[in-house]
Automatic annotation (TrEMBL):
UniProt xrefs under Pfam families: Mur_ligase_C, Mur_ligase_M
Protein name per its UniProtKB record: UDP-N-acetylmuramoylalanyl-D-glutamate--2, 6-diaminopimelate ligase
InterPro entries: Mur-like_cat_sf, Mur_ligase_C, Mur_ligase_C_dom_sf, Mur_ligase_cen, MurE/MurF_N
Gene Ontology molecular-function annotations: acid-amino acid ligase activity; ATP binding
Alphabetic keyword roster: Cell cycle, Cell division, Ligase
Organism of origin: Bifidobacterium callimiconis
GO terms (BP aspect): cell division
Keyword Cell cycle in annotation: yes
Gene3D superfamilies from the UniProt entry: Mur ligase, C-terminal domain (3.90.190.20), Mur-like, catalytic domain (3.40.1190.10), MurE/MurF, N-terminal domain (3.40.1390.10)
Start and end residues of each Mur ligase C-terminal domain: 324-459
C-alpha cells in the first residue's frame, strides 16, 4: 500500500480538488510544511482510526465524531470542512470528499483496476442478471478468474459469494475488494453501476473496459436519490464517457442520445442482438423472456472482450439461476404456482406479467400480487407497480417492503389509493408473513382454478429493513416453500 500525506496531497492537487492543507493554525498548499505520514489504512469510519490511518469525512459525517478519533491518535483526514477546532490532525481540505476518496483509495490499494478487465453494467432493469450471466461466461472462458460486484452478492475469487449491501459499493470498499480479487488471481471484474454510484462519486476516476447500458425508464426518483428522471438518466449516462467501449441494449429508450454521448467521446458502440435471436441458440434455466435480453447483453459484452462467437464458454450462462429472481414453487394442496421475484417498479412488474401471460395465460389463472414498496425513496414505484398490474391481475395484497422512517401502513394505503380499476380486489396486511399466508389460504379455497401468486420485491432477502436496520425475515422463497410443503 503506497500512499503518504505528501503523495495524497499531490494527487488531489493534480485533479484540481485540493483547496489547502490545514493543521491547527498552519495553512499551506505545500505538503512539505507538514510531517509526512505513510498511511497503513484508509477508512470513512472515525471509529476505526489510529495514527497511520487516512480518514475520509463524507456524507452526513458529524464534527463530533472527530473528538474520539483525535484521542485515538488520528493524524490525517480528508474533508470539505476545516475541522481543526476538533482535532490536531492534518486536514486535506478538498472541493469534493467523495471524489477525493475514490481517487486516493484507488492509489492506496495500488490501482487494482489496472490489473483487471473491468465491465460496468447499468440500466434500470436487468443489471444483476446480466452481471451474473457475464461473470459465468468470463469465468468459463478464463478458468474461474472473474470477480463480481452485484446488488445480491459479491464474489472475489470466482467461486465464493457473499451478500452485498449496495448495488455499487462505496469507492473505498470497491478498490479494497478489487485488490483482494487481483491478489486472488482474478483477471476480470463484472460490476453493477447504479445511478447513485455516479451521483455520489463511488466510481469517480474508474474507467470501464466495457460499459453496458441496458435500458432506461423512470425509477429511483426521491429526495435522497434523484430529484427528476432527467437527473437519474444523466447520472447513468456518465458510464458512457467513462468506458473504453459501450454495449447498448436492444430497444433502449433514448438510444440516439446515448449514441451521441458515445460519438462525442469517440467510443465504439456494440448493439445487442434482439432477444429472439438469443432464444434460437440458448435455453436459459432462469424464466422470463426479458432474461434473453439480459443474455444478449452478456453475449455482446463477451464479444467485445474477445470471447469468440460460438465458444462453449458462452453457454455457461444457460445454467445460471439467481436466488430470488423468477423462482417458481408449486403447492402440494392446490393448483397454485408462486413466483418469487425481485420486480419492484413499473417496467419489471410489466415484464413479469408478460411472462405470466405467456406461460399461464391460456388457463386464465387467478393472479394475486403480494407487494409493498420501499419507504422514504423511489416514490414513483408505488403508482408504477399498481398501474403496471391493476388491469392484469385479480387481487393485490399490499404489505411491508423495506423502510426507513415511513410507516409501512402509510405506503400500503398510498398504493391502494392509486387503484382506479374497479375489477381488481385489494387488501392490506402489513405483516409480510401473514400476507403470504393469507394469499396461500385464499388460493387453496379456489380449487377449481389455477392460481398464480406473485411475491415481489424481496427476492431471497432474509431481512426486512425497518428504520434502515435489518430485521430478520424468513424470506419469500423459504416462506412459500414451507407453506407449500415442497420446493423446486
Ligand atoms: C445516499 C447514499 O449514498 N448514502 C450512502 C452513504 O451514506 P453517507 O455517506 O451519508 O453515510 P452515513 O451512513 O449517513 O454516515 C456519514 C459518514 O459518517 C461516518 N461515521 C458515522 C458514525 C461515526 O461514529 N463515525 C463516522 O465516521 C460513516 O461511516 C459515513 O461515512 O454511505 C453509506 C456507506 O458509507 C451508504 O450505506 C449509504 O447508502 C444508503 C444506505 C443507501 O441506501 N443508498 C441507496 C440510495 C443507494 O445507494 N442505492 C443504490 C441503487 C440501488 C438500485 O439500483 O436499486 C446502490 O448503488 O445501492
Ligand atoms: N431486461 C429486463 N427488462 C425488464 N424487466 C427485467 C429485466 N431483467 C430483469 N427484469 C425484472 O427486474 C427484476 C430485477 O432484475 P435484476 O435484479 O436483474 O435488475 P436490476 O437492474 O439489478 O434491478 P435493481 O436495480 O432493482 O436491483 C427481475 O426480478 C425481473 O422481474
Amino acid at each position: 500500500m503506497t500512499l503518504s500525506l505528501a503523495s495524497a496531497a499531490r494527487l488531489l492537487d493534480q485533479h484540481g480538488l485540493l483547496r489547502e492543507i490545514i493543521q491547527n493554525d498552519r495553512w499551506s498548499l505545500d505538503p512539505q510544511d507538514f510531517t509526512d505520514i505513510a498511511f497503513t489504512a484508509v477508512t470513512y469510519d472515525s471509529r476505526a482510526v489510529d495514527a497511520t490511518t487516512l480518514l475520509f469525512c463524507k456524507g452526513r459525517f458529524k464534527a463530533e465524531y472527530l473528538t474520539a478519533a483525535n484521542e485515538a491518535g488520528l493524524a490525517c483526514y480528508v474533508a470539505e470542512t476545516d475541522f481543526s477546532e476538533r482535532t490536531d490532525a492534518v486536514g486535506l481540505i478538498v472541493d469534493d470528499a467523495r471524489k477525493a476518496m475514490s481517487l486516493l483509495s484507488a492509489e492506496f490499494y495500488g490501482r487494482p483496476q489496472d490489473s483487471l478487465t473491468v465491465v460496468g453494467i447499468t440500466g434500470t432493469k436487468g443489471k444483476t442478471t446480466t452481471a451474473y450471466f457475464t461473470q459465468a461466461v468470463l469465468n468459463a472462458w478464463s478458468g474461474g478468474k472473474a470477480a463480481l460486484f452485484s446488488s445480491v452478492d459479491n464474489c472475489l475469487d470466482g467461486k465464493h459469494y457473499e451478500e452485498s449491501d449496495l448495488t455499487t459499493p462505496e469507492s473505498l470498499d470497491a478498490f479494497r475488494m478489487m485488490r483482494t480479487a487481483v491478489d486472488n488471481g482474478m483477471r476480470y471484474l463484472v460490476m453493477e453501476v447504479s445511478s447513485q454510484a455516479y451521483k455520489v462519486h463511488r466510481v469517480h476516476g474508474l474507467t470501464f473496459d466495457v460499459g453496458a447500458f441496458l435500458n432506461i425508464s423512470p425509477d429511483h426518483i426521491s429526495p435522497i436519490e434523484h430529484p427528476t428522471f432527467e437527473d437519474y438518466f444523466h447520472c447513468k449516462r456518465q458510464i458512457i464517457t467513462n468506458s473504453r467501449a459501450l454495449v447498448l441494449g436492444d430497444g433502449c429508450a433514448h438510444a440516439d442520445l446515448i449514441r451521441q454521448d458515445a460519438a462525442r467521446a469517440g467510443i465504439d458502440v456494440t448493439e445487442t442482438a434482439p432477444r429472439e435471436q438469443v432464444m434460437e441458440s440458448h435455453d436459459l434455466a432462469i424464466d422470463g423472456d426479458f432474461n434473453y435480453a439480459n443474455a444478449a447483453a452478456a453475449l455482446a459484452i463477451a464479444h467485445v472482450i474477445g470471447v469468440p462467437d460460438g465458444d462453449p464458454a458462452l453457454h455457461a450462462m444457460d445454467t445460471v439461476r439467481i436466488a430470488g429472481r423468477m423462482e417458481q414453487f408449486h403447492d402440494t394442496h392446490s393448483d397454485t404456482v408462486a413466483i418469487v421475484d425481485y420486480a419492484h417498479n413499473y417496467a419489471s412488474v410489466n415484464a413479469l406479467l408478460d411472462f405470466v401471460d405467456k406461460r399461464f395465460g391460456e388457463r386464465h389463472p387467478h393472479i394475486t400480487l403480494v407487494t409493498g414498496s420501499a419507504g422514504n425513496k423511489a416514490y414513483d414505484r408505488r403508482d408504477g407497480i399498481v398501474n403496471a398490474a391493476q388491469s392484469r391481475i385479480d387481487q393485490f395484497v399490499f404489505t411491508t417492503e423495506d423502510s426507513d422512517t415511513e410507516p409501512y401502513l402509510d405506503i400500503c394505503n398510498q398504493m391502494q389509493g392509486y387503484i382506479t380499476d374497479p375489477n381488481v380486489a385489494s387488501t392490506i396486511i402489513v405483516d409480510r408473513t401473514e400476507a403470504v399466508n393469507w394469499a396461500v389460504d385464499r388460493a387453496r379455497e379456489r380449487q377449481d382454478r389455477l392460481n398464480v401468486l406473485l411475491l415481489i420485491g424481496k427476492g431471497d432477502e432474509r431481512w426486512i429493513k425497518d428504520h434502515n436496520r435489518h430485521v430478520a425475515y424468513e424470506g419469500d422463497d423459504r416462506l412459500v416453500a414451507r407453506l407449500f410443503g415442497t420446493q423446486e
